[in-house]
Amino acid sequence: MKIKVLVLSALIAVNAVSGFAEGDASKYEAVKDHLKKIAAEYPDRAKPFKLGLSDSGDYIEGLKIGDGPVRDLIVATHHGNEYGSTEVAKAMASSLAVDPIKGRAVYVIPVLNISGYNSVRRNETAAGRSVDPNRDYPGPCTTGSPFRLKSTKALADFIEKENIVASATLHTYMPAVLYPWGISTQDTATPYDDIFIQLSQAAVVESNYKYGNSTQMLYPADGTFEDYAYWKTGAWSLLFEVGYTHSPNSDAVAELVRVNVPGLRRFIEQSPRERAERHAFTGKCDRSMKALDRHDE
Ligand SMILES: [Zn+2]
What we know:
There is one protein chain. The chain is an alpha/beta fold. It has 9 helices and 10 strands. Strands 1-2-4-3-7-10-8-9 form an 8-stranded mixed sheet, with helices on both faces. The protein has a two-stranded antiparallel sheet with strand order 5-6. Helix 2 packs parallel to helix 3, helix 3 crosses helix 9 and helix 6 (193-203) packs across helix 9.
């Protein structure tokens, strides 16, 4: 009984925190201002778009940069505390506006998880619940119900609707560039490992980050965006785990930008112009591996 009371008061405390936890709204406002400035300076090539409404009540905003027929995606900050990834996406938007990629249009979304970003928390809040956005997608080995968040559903709908071909999702930290499958399985190979390796190598020229299969190099994680994008659509999907910490100082942020912006550009330039055809998962899920998901990257 005493334990029940304790658990109950802990839950009330968490709810009280999340009620107030939309954090410092000026933080996301500053990201939107950055996008607005780029759009104002380069109106011919950088077009603002809204991904959709998030559970925070804010619109998730981004820029479409370039006008090529092949459409690609850079999305950061599924995890709200990983602000180093936000800064890389902002810098990438600036770089693409100065020099768009020929034949391609890149959608850049610097922050997916707005309430987490404003309050420097990994998870996103929805109806008083705290949800890990990068475990909120369907996948070949998931068990729970997906899309508890509006943000993840909006992104999933978007990549289908816009026919996204290459997709980079940015997180901190490891550092590494990782490719599918990153799920609970021993059968981690895809029919395209050679292409994923080439694209990863192109992405790490400046950073010298390690690259490889996500399950083998990081840990299995079911319900992530990077696996969803490849599994559901055949998008060429890479996970960038940038830098060495979740709390980089300004020098470390500058270094994240310096070593990752050229690699992200090369990844998109060199990605095939059509999605992968054989993107179904044909291996076996291994439920015993679920315990290996550390939920910290
Ligand atoms: Zn993360």
